[in-house]
Amino acid sequence: MENSRFIPTSCTRRDPALPDSMLKGKTALVTGSTSGIGLGIAARLAAAGANVVLNGFGDPSEVEQLRAGLAAEHRVTVTYDDADMTKPAAIAAMLRKAIAQFGAVDVLVNNAGIQHVAPVEEFPLDRWDAIIAINLSSSFHTVRAALPAMKARRWGRIVNIASAHALVASPFKSAYVAAKHGLAGFTKTVALEVAEQGITVNAVCPGYVLTPLVEKQIPDTAKARGVPEDIVKRDVLLAAQPTKKFVAIEEVAGLTVFLCSNEAASITGAVLPVDGGWTAQ
Q1: Catalytic residue check, 176
Q2: How many CA atoms lie within 13 A of 260 on its CB side?
Q3: Which entry of 172, 176, 246, 278 is annotated as an active-site residue?
Q4: pTM for this one?
Q5: Which in 141, 161, 171, 217 has the greatest CB count within 10 A?
Q6: Is the pLDDT at 227 greater than 60, yes or no?
Q7: 252 in Cβ contact with 37 (< 8 Å)
Q8: Can you name the residues that pair with 51 across neighbouring β-strands?
Q9: In what order do the strands lie in the sheet with 156-161?
């Protein structure tokens, strides 16, 4: 797990374009938010005034320090739920608890994800099932549980953190690419269903961000391709991004929070790349 006690200042500093009151009185639930992209998004939502429900794995003392730190810095309520995103019953219980406490989950960010890299014929069955469950099915379960309260308030923001792999494919990532393509389709479908009810549904598609998830797949990719790890970074990962730079967490967080604003009310059903030009090729 990324050091939970460290939150990049670029994710938490006061941004004049995102006043503290922008989401005041709203509650945001971010899955997979104890490290990486999810943590950056949760911190930015708290900075915009939202109460936040964190979710993910990690050392309990570090997670508690993270939770308390966000609450104190931004003067919002921050809670934590360790729901396992492979288990529909646990997901439903997390949403019920959050809605009972706050009245609704006004902002839902589906960010939880895992990865495994292997040729199709060698892909472990349990890894396929886990990736589909966490990267795709968990979003169905959270959205299904959150929508009734959003509809009652006639306001809601759902942001699914997909990937450039929702738009293009790469070898050895069959489960991940399948899940992210499915998440893009799911995003569009739900957006159409709730378009007249004050609820927007969008997908943000980052290119390579140097998170724990990406760092963990570098050795597997090196093994699968038979090349050194530094070559994987230079000639496999960043080769896809014309900028030749990893996408920054704060860039993904900034777009996500903008999609939660009133100014983004007419942006729905969009699948938006943040990928350094990768999918423009």
Answers
A1: yes
A2: 34
A3: 176
A4: 0.90
A5: 161
A6: yes
A7: yes
A8: 27
A9: 78-81, 51-55, 27-30, 107-110, 156-161, 199-206, 271-274
